[in-house]
């Protein structure tokens, strides 16, 4: 930590706080490990019982809703009210929801999904309308209802024509806050034109990969043909797909499941972390595949920083999504009488946040608080990047804090410095 000495006529004294890096798992919104919570659309929930199944420290939940009972008809009022109650429950307990409606939870996609494509479209419209009419915490809509486990494979409705119709039907209901996540980069490209991609417009379509590390192709997520040979809408080679994923996931959330495979590399910390960083992973299932995750818990890292001897599982979990650290603070007085505060913030997580945030400089005296909005675009603070923040303020006898919060609901976002408060204490000013 470096500081600049201040010698001013008013004899203000800056007393800095030490800000060492923490290895704590941060309960920040819309990132991290998640559990899958499975429900039947025709059945209601018991909130008092369900709350005991929530895992402490997790801010995300994958809510999987089985629509199998309605494969031949529209959702009735009972089903819609049940879904509304499920979403309200998770919002009440401050869980950001990844919503995955599906017809199958046993790997029998073709058998369980509707025989009539119009029924799928009807269900999408009904769920879309419910999202528009209900207060909820859904941030990602995962899949387009079809396929085994809702994972967009083993379905009769995966042609380009079907996918476009499903996408066009759902898109208008998602608004500006909800991302649609699809299973593979090839499906992403079917829904996103090459010209749009070349313009850097990634839209609101994201990726979920439920075959991470299961094989060198992530269990079919990648293909074997080159981009030139396959064309824009087909699967490419592993190398080309990872390069593509590295581009599109800078602006959109990416997550899924790590799976035990036979190609090796899953017990190599450098290989695993390289894969997770390239994909800019924001979330992972903490229950599947336990064989892989248990292996990660047995692998200690050999690093030159505070993470030395911590295991791979803890490191990966702590770095899913964004992880902001204040690296440097400098302060000096200007000729105008104001103070110039310069702060260096680094994102050591795998990804940038995909939601808007706001940064505040807070001065707190014994009886008063002053807040200064600070210009900081957290969504543009990519993995591994350092951002320099400069803020001017009038000196006051006070403690000086930095506060980061999610814009839409003002939920606190904690820095990965060794301080547990919602506001990070930088130091104090005294005459």
Poorly predicted parts: 1-8
| Overall tally of structural domains | 2
Instruction: Give the helices and strands as they follow along the chain.
Output: EEHEHEHHEHEHHEHHEHEHHEEEEEEEE
Annotated CATH topology of the largest domain? TIM Barrel
What is the topology, as strand order, of the major beta sheet? 2-3-4-5-6-7-8-9
Helical content band: 25-40%
Mean pLDDT: 94
Rough outline = globular
Q: How much β-strand is present in the residues? A: 25-35%
Structural class: alpha/beta
Distance between the termini: 23 Å
Descriptive notes:
It is a single chain. The protein is of the alpha/beta class. The chain has 2 domains: 13-23 and 323-430, Immunoglobulin-like (Sandwich), CATH 2.60.40; 32-319, Alpha-Beta Barrel (TIM Barrel). It contains 12 helices and 17 strands. The protein has helices at 47-50, 77-92, 109-112, 117-133, 160-174, 185-191, 194-198, 227-230, 238-248, 269-278, 290-297, 312-319; strands spanning 13-16, 32-40, 60-66, 96-102, 138-142, 179-182, 205-212, 254-258, 281-285, 324-333, 339-347, 357-364, 369-374, 386-393, 398-406, 412-413, 423-430. Helix 10 (269-278) links the parallel strand 8 (254-258) and strand 9. The chain is globular.
């Amino acid at each position: 930590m470096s500081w600049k000495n201040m010698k001013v006529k008013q004899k203000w004294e800056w007393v800095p706080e030490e800000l060492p890096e923490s290895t704590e798992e941060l309960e920040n919104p819309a990132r991290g490990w998640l559990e899958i919570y499975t429900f039947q659309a025709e059945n209601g929930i018991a909130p008092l019982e369900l709350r005991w199944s929530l895992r402490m420290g997790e801010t995300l939940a994958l809510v999987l809703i089985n629509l199998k009972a309605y494969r031949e008809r529209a959702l009735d009022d009972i089903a819609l009210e049940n879904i509304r109650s499920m979403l309200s429950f998770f919002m009440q307990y401050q869980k950001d929801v990844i919503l995955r409606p599906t017809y199958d939870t046993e790997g029998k996609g073709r058998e369980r999904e509707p025989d009539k494509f119009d029924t799928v479209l009807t269900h999408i419209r009904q769920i879309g309308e419910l999202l528009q009419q209900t207060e909820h915490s859904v941030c990602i809509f995962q899949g387009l209802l079809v396929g085994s486990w809702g994972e967009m494979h083993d379905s009769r409705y995966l042609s380009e024509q079907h996918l476009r119709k499903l996408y066009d039907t759902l898109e208008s209901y998602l608004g500006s806050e909800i991302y649609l996540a699809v299973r593979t980069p090839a499906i992403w490209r079917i829904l996103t034109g090459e010209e749009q991609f070349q313009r850097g417009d990634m839209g609101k379509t994201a990726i979920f990969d439920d075959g991470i590390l299961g094989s060198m192709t992530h269990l079919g997520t990648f293909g074997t043909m080159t981009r030139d040979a396959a064309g824009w809408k087909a699967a490419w080679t592993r190398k080309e797909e990872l390069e593509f994923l590295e581009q599109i996931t800078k602006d959109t959330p990416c997550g899924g499941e790590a799976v035990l495979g036979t190609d090796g590399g899953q017990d190599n910390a450098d290989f695993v972390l390289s894969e997770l960083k390239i994909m800019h992973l924001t979330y992972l299932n903490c229950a599947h595949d336990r064989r892989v995750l248990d292996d990660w818990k047995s692998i200690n890292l050999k690093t030159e920083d505070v993470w030395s001897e911590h295991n791979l599982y803890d490191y990966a979990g702590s770095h899913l999504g964004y992880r902001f650290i204040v690296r440097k603070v400098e302060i000096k007085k200007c000729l105008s009488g104001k103070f110039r505060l310069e702060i260096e913030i680094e994102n050591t997580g795998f990804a940038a946040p995909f939601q808007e945030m706001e940064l505040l400089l807070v001065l707190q005296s014994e009886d008063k608080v002053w807040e200064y909005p600070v210009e900081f675009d957290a969504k543009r603070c990519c993995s591994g990047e350092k951002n320099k923040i400069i803020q001017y303020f009038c000196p006051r006898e006070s403690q000086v804090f930095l506060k980061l919060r999610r814009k839409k609901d003002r939920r606190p976002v904690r820095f990965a410095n060794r301080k547990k408060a919602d506001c990070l204490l930088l130091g104090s000013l005294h005459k």
